[in-house]
Design a protein that fits this description.
The protein contains 14 helices and nine strands. With 348 residues, it is α/β, with parallel strands linked by helices. The protein is globular and about 60 Å long. Bound molecules: 5'-deoxyadenosine and FE2/S2 (inorganic) cluster. 5'-deoxyadenosine (5AD) is lined by residues 71-72, 163, 165, 204, 233, 235-236, 238, 275, 310-311.
């Protein structure tokens, strides 16, 4: 037991451990070692970002997807998903409402939908950046060529989210159909970083077949990539997927991985995800207290929210953006943090 405290001290000092050492923490952590880790994670986070919690306005602009990832509720084979696409005008309307509510980052997220050609994405990004030069635009639209990424970057996109999902190639193969490879995913992430995007990788906790060693491998990959953002949330089964009957990831393990990630990359922008809020009523608050510093409320129009369901029982699908902001503001204040209206860039 004192061994785990020692390993946490070592991680705080060196920002890295051996794979076996990470695995030891992940397999042997207790509520006492967690409290010790989270206190350190908060100290590190507050040294860089204080008590500020950044908000990102998430615009889920299409749920069409050409991919068939086994875990995902909007996979191509999910025949019951009601598909939708937002027009450029609808996306601009979301930004206008979001800007009024204090958002200074817009995240355009969608399935891999060929309808939105590179030219269309470039046009949307350019329009948002022209109208809101004080805002950051984040794209989260999947695997593309380096050329495409370069066009998006030139159009003014500031950040890109692409979770690596798991850093172990065999595990990757069990979560994805043939044709999707970890190798290409990682190629995308290194291209994005080289092109100067603030880049986010990330993974689900408790995805089927995941081992403690796999989670250790995720931390080693994060340490190597040195991303500016890391998205971590629980896997939650979706009823219309091959993983419908699998167990969800646990709150405890997600919090542990948030705390460890904060010590691996002290300055990282780390969201307390909606999925974390879905598995526990205080999930996002607990995420912030474990070292997270970002929340990503939904700005999508209310009539499409219930259609962008990657997993079951997603929260906030009936609420207006304004309600979520007020609610999150109260939630953050209840734990001694504050939501801020700021681009919330990565601090070197
Ligand atoms: N449970 C939790 N997270 C999921 N994602 C996709 N499907 C699920 C699920 N069933 C996550 C993936 C993806 C991100 C947009 O959402 O990690 O990268
Ligand atoms: Fe959406 Fe609380 S954050 S209702």
């Amino acid at each position: 037991m004192s061994r785990i405290f020692e390993l946490i001290d070592k991680l705080e000092k060196d920002r890295i451990l051996l794979k076996e050492e990470f695995s030891e923490i992940i397999s042997g952590h207790t509520s006492e070692t967690d409290e010790y880790l989270f206190a350190k994670a908060r100290t590190v986070r507050e040294r860089v970002y204080g008590k500020d919690v950044y908000i990102r306005g998430l615009i889920e602009f299409t749920n069409y997807c050409k991919n068939d990832c086994l875990y995902c509720g909007i996979r191509r084979s999910a025949k019951n998903a009601e598909r939708y696409r937002l027009t450029e005008e609808q996306i601009m309307d979301c930004c206008e409402m979001g800007y009024g509510l204090g958002f200074r980052t817009f995240v355009l997220q969608g399935g891999e939908d060929g309808f939105y050609t590179d030219d269309k994405i470039v046009s949307i990004v350019s329009r948002i950046k022209a109208k809101y030069p004080d805002c950051a635009v984040t794209l989260s639209i999947g695997e593309k060529s380096r050329d495409s990424y370069e066009k998006f970057r030139k159009a003014g996109a500031d950040r890109y989210l692409l979770r690596h999902e798991t850093a172990n190639p065999e595990h990757y193969g069990k979560l994805h159909p043939k044709g999707l490879t970890l190798e290409n995913r990682m190629r995308c992430l290194s291209d994005l970083k080289e092109l100067g995007f603030q880049t986010g990788c990330g993974f689900m906790v408790g995805s089927p077949y995941q081992t403690a060693e796999n989670l250790a491998e995720d931390l080693l990959y994060i340490s190597k990539l040195q991303p500016q953002m890391v998205g971590i949330g629980p896997f939650i089964p979706h009823h219309d997927t091959p993983f419908a009957n699998e167990k969800a990831g646990t709150l405890e393990t997600v919090l542990l991985m948030l705390g460890l990630t904060r010590l691996v990359v002290p300055n990282v922008l780390l969201p307390a995800t909606t999925a974390l809020g879905t598995i526990h009523p205080k999930g996002r608050e607990k995420g912030i207290l474990a070292g997270a510093n970002v929340v990503m409320p939904n700005l999508s129009p209310s009539d499409v929210r219930k259609k962008y369901l990657l997993y079951d029982n997603k929260i906030c699908t009936g609420d207006e953006a304004a309600e979520c902001i007020a609610c999150l503001g109260r939630r953050m204040e209840s734990i001694g943090y504050r939501l801020v209206s700021d681009r919330g860039d990565f601090k070197e």
